[in-house]
Amino acid sequence: MIQITESAITRMKEMLAQEDNEQQFVRFGVKYGGCSGLTYGLGFDNTKQTDDTIIETNGVQLVVDAESYPYLDGVEIDFVETGMMGGFTIQNPNARVTCGCGSSFRTALDRGKKEKCD
Question: How high does pLDDT run on average in the chain?
Answer without folding.
Answer: 86
